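Structural prep section.
Before we set up the soaks we want a predicted structure of the protein with zinc ion in place, mainly to decide which crystallisation condition to try first. Input record follows.
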Amino acid sequence: MRSRVRSGLAVAAAVALLAAGAVPAGASSRPAPGGSGAGDPYFPFAGNSGYDAVHYDLDVRYQPPAAAPAPLAGQLDAVATVTIVPTRHLTSFNLDLRGLEVDSVAVGSRPATFTREGDELIVTPRTILPRGKEVDVVVTYGGATGRPRDIEDALYGWVTTRDGAMVASEPDGSMTWYPVSDHQTDKATYDVAVTVPEGLVAVGNGDLVGSATAGGWTTWEWSSREPMASYLVTASVGNYELRQWTTPGGLLNIDAIDRDLAPAASAGLAQTAEMIAFFETRFGPYPFSSFGAIVDDDSVGYALETQTRPIYSTRANEGTVAHELSHQWFGNSVSPERWADIWLNEGWATYAEWLWSEHDGRTTAAENFADVMATPATSSFWQTIVADPGPLGLFAGAVYDRGAATLYALRERIGAEAFDALSLEWPARYKDSVATTDDFQALAEELSGQDLEAFFDAWVWTAGKPAVP
Ligand code: TRP
Ligand code: ZN
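Run finished without errors. Recording the tokens verbatim:
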């Protein structure tokens, strides 16, 4: 039964790639152009092939909108240095970039020619890039920033705000502000420097290297030593107060709280240290070197688990804080190999919210599960195929709630001992990597010693309300 589903998916993938005209790179050793996509059926042009991006050094200067005339527009001027390692001999290669203007591209410090096609920046270096030889690609670019939207019409990417920018890029919005291999299969480390008018703060992921002010501009430097998927990169700008503190366990937190917000807006952060300690007992060591929050008085309409530093729209609620924190294990350290696998992010994060709620003496996981299962079988809620929700269904309610119910039901099915082992082993085995729904089923089978084919078929590969085990 599953092989039928799976081959259906493979055919759909091939059809989507053909329909979209994406070109996968060949595997021969003959020099050839890189491909325009990483092979994700939902977003055929996201990411690229023919090379691995290993590091981004972004140097961005940003002037937020002057007053508040509609439409909001800022000005961004930047130099991106992308270190790539060709995985074949390359005659040309692609980066993803939407909007903005490219002034110049250099490869290995020699000028290169480039063209733009849709959201693809196609770079042709002077000479063939040999497979395996690391090389720096320097892109000088800039232009007016606006308020980009994803295919569901939600704000994402570099979202210009009254006093800065909110940068939240799931699934493919990083290309709205820097040239990138914009898919989680190509994780990289980052050094990001953002220069903003003095008085404003730019907040990135990872560690704060420092800040320096000269001539009315302040440069904020951030560094992420752990590999990061492009959709988790932020460089948000606002009227923030930075608060640094350390958990009893020794983890540095850097919170950026908008000064224009009332204290109640960030009250949901109060139990962050307890949450980290609690999740570490369930999911293993916190996967990164720091944590924190960005709470902005503007809104993109949702919160995002930007790596080490989730971003919140106008308010950080306690449940949302638990959700975004748990994503550091589920989504950020272990990322979905294809966007179809997003329930591995959202199901786990919702289930983690249930665990925290129960631990904190409120609604139990059993009650939350019962709530989901109280949804009538006739409801359209049950029509989403959790492990293949479609590109417009990434954030469907069922991806979150049926995804969480799947994990609860799996625990009932394989028992607490095997499930607890799975909760620790999944983030450990796939740390700093990507994994699929099949990988998850395989690990659950390995740790439980059970054949879970029918279980996963019913819960994530089939529409319709599953029977409670
Ligand atoms: N991944 C986010 C979370 O669950 C949610 C999210 C990202 C989202 N982009 C969105 C929700 C667009 C709605 C619309 O934490
Ligand atoms: Zn989430």
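Observations: The mean pLDDT is 94.
Flagged for discussion at group meeting.
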